[in-house]
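BUG: 3D viewer hangs when loading the predicted structure for this chain

Environment: internal workstation, default settings.
Expected: structure renders.
Actual: progress bar stalls at 90%.

Input used:
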Amino acid sequence: MVRASGIGPAWIVRSSLGGGVTLDPALTDPGSSSGLALLAPAVSGAPPPELGPASRSLDSVLEPAAGAAQLAEVVRLLIWLWLNGPAGPEGRVSGPGRPPATSLI
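Structure tokens produced before the viewer hung:
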């Protein structure tokens, strides 16, 4: 991990999927880093999270769209999920931080 860079062990700060990518090598080679600071890391082998009704409803349309490679629909649904929350109405969060899905493709 850090050894490949030639700088020696160092503290590694990561979050989400990056935390998971960092965690497994750190566990198999503890001397490769001085320490980890992980925020909500993905953990390999962990069971999938239990989804509430709103998340299940959104997931039931997100998965087929992803499977059919409907990119515009996937982007629209992910914007809904991350900005509005699965139970929030679509478009609840607006403004320049929320570009229309069509502008992202």
